[in-house]
Amino acid sequence: MNMENNTNYSDPQVFTKEAAGVRGNFVANVFAWMFTALIITAVVSYLFGSQIALIKLLIGSSGLTPLGWIVMFAPLGLVLLMSLGYNKLSGTALMIIFVIYSFLMGASLGFIFLVYDLGTIGLAFIITSGMFALMAIAGYTTKMDLTRFGNILMIALVAIVIGSVVNIFMGNDTMDLIICCVGVLVFTGLIAYDMQKIKNNAEYAMANPESGRKMAVLSALHLYLDFINLFLMLLRLLNRR
Hints:
By secondary structure, this protein is an all-alpha fold. The protein is about 80% helix and about 0% strand.
């Protein structure tokens, strides 16, 4: 009995369905890693913000402990390691680093439970989740090319970082309000921008399993950072009430 594969791969409809399936699998992997990291961060931040023994590991009588300084600066180092070492690191190594990064971020964000009340934190999380979902869908479905907005968003992001550092010393309330408002706009735009990049890179990433694993983790990192930073900006704005 002659078994033949009658699938016509030259048929544009078949190719489109296969491409959609590949893209869907890649996007699902990205969100799986992003949500895993967010859950780790949320649990760890709550523990470090509510357990006195854990708080004392980071903050002593004279300020930050050695571990506190590590927790503060290590996440930045890990982001640079993942970004600059992308070509040399394996997919497994990137996954492990991302998990460690999300844990350290949770420890460093434990302060929000010491500074803000649970109602404000919960409201900020709900608003962030809604805005994230809306902009992710917009970025995935829009026909508009968002690439040209990338440089503008990056410049605005750098301006936010510089302005935040300067305002640490100035302590200007009006400047803080402006930084928060601009930050909300920038990170909202970055969600749509990064989501479109993920959709466009999906077929290339999944052409090679190892490349797909690595790109899924790095893409999840970008969305994770968009979510966390948007959440923190909204938290600061809501607290101004």
